[in-house]
Write a structure and sequence with these properties.
single chain; alpha/beta; FAD/NAD(P)-binding domain; 5-stranded parallel sheet; 16 helices
Length: about 450
């Protein structure tokens, strides 16, 4: 049977391993770093930010000692700016666009400056913003993830009452259930949820799943508008015999179990782990497996590093933590030993002259006792019962996040064009809220 065990490391070592990956800046460091900003007039960093935070403005405020003012600039554009400062791929967004990002210089550490400002504000305030006079209208938000929370907060500011229907027992969506523990320590995701709700006018009903406990038709009848922030609810299958073997698991579920565990030592991990996939989830699973005490962790990805969804920073993080990255490798067979996994066979791949991925015919095997699947998540459309138009397996929306169904908006990972980023989900939620407000007040 697979050698999957809990308690491979002592508590002290686990505490060290799962400490904050990005230690925050202190006040002096933040002021010094803020002084590196050129405060560009055209602000390419702001243009690169999906939520269009006025980055030069908030950095200037940090430099002048107005830290709360800096946070207010951030929250006015992105109410989840605290989490985004922790999980955004800033190296591919604002920091990549920074004019200091040259061969001779490093970019301004915008993400850490944003965290400095937002953490300072959250330490002294229980909410941001003041609600407008009540409109007497209510809006249903399905899903208490980043898109739903951002939509609910913006609607509340405009005077609407919001009821959020969340299938899980805890709010936060991906931020609470789906990211590496070391990226958001000290229960930050829940603290941020409380901060969003602190504005008032938002009620969350947990254990209410669309299609099971509530229907879209019912929500439309009871509320003036509906926003769908459903996220992605299922994981792609490998399509290989043996996916039900002991030791084969979904990386997303395993990460969630680790995130929710009161004691990391209680979460079992294999001795030799293979993670299949090349995205952020694959890296999160692989790195955390190592941090839990797995002796060997290998990531298999069917294409090359340039095609990986995981950023260069994430790839380096994996390698620093002892994860072996094997590119151009497509799994072909799961090797069983009794009812458990004993190994995985893969075929090396290449791109043909037309750019199509093809197998080379050369195969190799890796011994392992745990396989984690991280080959992408999919949207489950059944709860919508064909009420909104889909395209390429996700909800089709217009530029204001409106779906094909009257009175229904959508945003986040569940919509066509979603990039599975917290910051983009926030942008979708806020944009939808503005459109919903205009529709309700017309």
């Amino acid at each position: 049977m697979p050698d999957i065990s809990a308690g491979r490391l002592e508590t002290a070592e686990l505490t060290k391993n799962f400490a904050d990956i990005h230690p925050p800046l202190d006040r002096h460091e933040a002021v010094v770093e803020s002084d590196r900003c050129y405060f560009c007039y055209d602000a390419p960093c702001t243009i690169a930010c999906p939520t269009s935070i006025d980055i030069p403005m908030f950095i200037r405020k940090i430099g002048t000692g107005n830290v709360d003012g800096a946070a207010e600039t951030i929250f006015s554009s992105n109410i989840l700016g605290g989490m985004c400062a922790r999980v955004c791929p800033t190296e591919e967004l604002c920091e990549e666009a920074c004019v200091r990002n040259t061969a001779e210089e490093k970019p301004v550490r915008i993400g850490l400056l944003q965290r400095f400002a937002t953490d300072h504000y959250l330490g002294g305030h229980d909410h941001f913003g003041t609600r407008a006079a009540s409109t007497g209208k209510t809006v249903a938000v399905v899903g208490a993830g980043p898109a739903g929370l951002a939509c609910a907060h913006e609607l509340s500011l405009k005077g609407h009452d919001v009821v959020v229907y969340e299938a899980r027992a805890k709010s936060g969506g991906l931020n609470e259930h789906g990211i590496a523990t070391y990226k958001a320590t000290d229960n930050f995701a829940q603290k941020e949820v409380d901060f969003v709700l602190g504005v008032g006018g938002i009620r969350i009903e947990h254990g209410k799943a669309l299609g099971k406990d509530v229907s879209l038709a019912d929500l439309k009848a009871r509320h003036g508008a509906v926003f769908l922030g459903l996220g992605l609810q299922a994981v792609n299958a490998l399509g290989l015999e043996g996916e039900d073997l002991a030791g084969v698991t979904d990386a997303v579920r395993w990460i969630e179990d680790l995130r929710q565990a009161a004691d990391k030592a209680s979460v079992p991990v294999g001795r030799r782990v293979v993670v299949i996939g090349g995205g952020m989830t694959a890296v999160d699973a692989a790195v955390q497996a190592r941090k839990l005490g797995a002796e060997e962790v290998t990531m298999l990805y069917r294409r090359g590093p340039e095609q990986m969804n995981a950023s260069e920073f994430e790839r380096e993080l994996a390698q620093i933590n002892g994860v072996k990255l094997v590119y151009w490798a497509a799994p072909t067979r799961l090797i069983a030993e009794g009812n458990g996994i004993a190994g995985i066979e893969y075929e090396t791949t290449r791109l043909d002259d037309s750019g199509k991925l093809v197998g080379t015919g050369r195969k190799a095997t890796l011994a392992c006792d745990q396989v984690m699947k991280a080959i992408g998540q999919v949207f489950v459309a059944e709860p919508l019962a064909d009420t909104v138009a889909l395209e390429k397996g996700r909800i089709k929306v217009d530029g204001e996040q409106r779906t094909s169904a009257a009175g229904v908006w959508a945003g986040g990972d569940c919509v066509l064009g979603g990039e599975d980023l917290t910051v983009q989900a926030v942008d979708h939620g806020k944009r939808a809220a503005q459109s919903i407000h205009a529709s309700l007040m017309a």
